[in-house]
Amino acid sequence: MSKSPKQQQPTFEAALAELEKIVESMEGGEMPLEQSLAAYKRGAELLKFCQAALRDAQQQVKVLEDNVLKNFDSSDQ
Q: Which residues in the chain come in under a pLDDT of 50?
């Protein structure tokens, strides 16, 4: 039974909450070096995920603002 983190992506909100928790615990300065490195790596992954989610949302907003996106309703056919 192996876990595949790429199969289940967290929501933006969950990723941001986890990232905030990691930052808070690292700022405490009480983590051993190996745990700090693992936390830093996980934080970098979460940051990358959050940045990508924000870029995607910005692009969607831009499309909506440019009136390119059309509302297709199946009942209109």
A: 1-4, 76-77
For residue 50, what pLDDT is reported?
97
Question: Which one-letter amino acid corresponds to residue 53?
Answer: A
State the Cα torsion 11-50-38-3 to the nearest 10°. Answer: 40
CATH topology of domain 12-67: Helix Hairpins (1.10.287)
Q: What is the pTM of this model?
A: 0.70
How is the chain split into domains, by residue range? Answer: 12-67
| 6 touches 45 (CB < 8 A) | no
Going by C-alpha positions, the residue among 71, 75, 74, 53 that lies closest to residue 63 is: 71
Q: Distance between CA atoms of 33 and 20, rounded to whole angstroms?
A: 19
